[in-house]
Amino acid sequence: MKKILFFDIDGTLLDTNKNIPESTKYAVKELKKAGHTVAIATGRAPFLFSKIREELDIDTYIACNGQYVVVDSEVIHKESIPETDIVALTNKAMTNDHPIVYIDHEDMASNMESHVHVDEGLGSLKFDQDPIHDPNYFEGREILQALLFCEEGKEDAYEEQFTNLDFLRWHPLSLDVMPSGGTKAKSVKRIQAHLGLEDKDIYAFGDGPNDYEMLQQVENSVAMKNGVEQSKSVAKLVTDHVDNDGLYKAIVKLGLIKEM
User: Fold this and answer.
1) Distance between terminal CA atoms of the chain?
2) Running DSSP on this structure, what letter comes out for residue 228?
3) 191, 174: one domain
4) Which positions ≥6 away from 225 have C-beta within 8 Å?
5) What domain range includes position 122?
6) Are residues 118 and 166 in the same domain?
7) 44 within some domain
8) 74 and 87 belong to one structural domain
9) Which stretch of DSSP H or E encloses residue 122?
10) Alpha-carbon gap, residue 33 to 44, rounded angstroms
11) 112 and 56 fall within a common domain
């Protein structure tokens, strides 16, 4: 029976230098040759991993932590943050000098022309593009996700006020902001239902806190050694570090491909 495999990007498909290991390229090629579906499940917006999709020939993916879902190049699910919440969040953030970056499926924009927290946070991801400056970018657009930039502990006041939004920290200076309940795990289920697959045919690989629900839910789940303890604690298998061919080793161990 053919399988579908969901891969996180940063720390899973990409090593610590933001490159795709040659062993990973081999594994993806062999999986596809065997007729399996290779998919991506990431917190990134679609335009921030288009080159990865092109290089690995992937057209099924979960983006923005579950808010944008594509199967065989067709959008099957999209959920945005209500504009009223974006406005209220922005107003509160501005009073605290906390920048906001608005993200839709095509681009991202910052409400501040420059801020050291935005530079440091996004800089750590080594994206090949920076957010444009447009404080009104959210108007008339479907904002799938926002980035709130603030120090650890400062998010408590936001979480208390915006109970219909979820805040997930991914950097000491930044959090993902999403509609409440939006997760990779729920969108894995959406794709599973769309394709009519059984639980035993679903595989998931990840390393970060935004992979926790997915790795907990999926029957065949793999966490990277470089991952957070929370996600490693629920995965069925913990593989080697991403920089030590961990992804390739896991796929071989699972019997889905042969060794190089």
Assistant:
1) 23
2) -
3) no
4) 232, 238, 239, 240, 241, 242, 244, 246
5) 83-179
6) yes
7) yes
8) no
9) helix 116-123
10) 27
11) no
